[in-house]
């Protein structure tokens, strides 16, 4: 397949193109410059892969959860490209992309920093592909619970809020992989599995999980006490 994948859910800009056996990637921390950097870097990747946009089979994008602004930029970019080239879209949750990079295990906890003293959490079985056990949740780190030991934790959520975790949680973990984060290359792997449907560009959706964008000044002050 010929696929283009993009993720702007974090401060990283992650892009990748699959052209049969060939894969070219770009992954860099860009802060708030996703909108400025995305199209020029995408064009470089298309050139490197020897493809034109209209020759792709689909565009894969990170649905979220993640940065509200970043998600909207990514979805808008994916939709714009898809409409201009009459291509379908494949949306994939960000936590699934993190799970795809972790070792195969029956017990995988994906936990990403959601800001505002909260984390995005998903439980997975990755022994035979990426299988999420239940919905992605938004939790206070202090509310995290595991029913048994031997879990692998992926993502930066536990390390960011290490001082807020339940006392016994770390002891239940066999391994922690805080460096894993959403990447376009992982989206390509997941899209290639056929587990995620392709949709018309007009049907593209985002997975926010959280409805509230920012804390009020009073809430911020309360958290500093």
UniProtKB/TrEMBL annotation:
This is tRNA (Adenosine(37)-N6)-threonylcarbamoyltransferase complex dimerization subunit type 1 TsaB. Its EC number is 2.3.1.234. Gene3D superfamilies: 3.30.420.40. The lineage of its organism: Bacteria, Pseudomonadati, Pseudomonadota, Betaproteobacteria, Neisseriales. It comes from Crenobacter oryzisoli. Keywords: Acyltransferase, Transferase. GO terms for molecular function: tRNA N(6)-L-threonylcarbamoyladenine synthase activity. It holds the Pfam family TsaD. PANTHER family: TRNA N6-ADENOSINE THREONYLCARBAMOYLTRANSFERASE (PTHR11735), TRNA THREONYLCARBAMOYLADENOSINE BIOSYNTHESIS PROTEIN TSAB (PTHR11735:SF11). InterPro entries: ATPase_NBD, Gcp-like_dom, T6A_TsaB. It is an enzyme of class 2 (transferase). Residues 29-125 form the Gcp-like domain. CDD domains: ASKHA_NBD_TsaB.
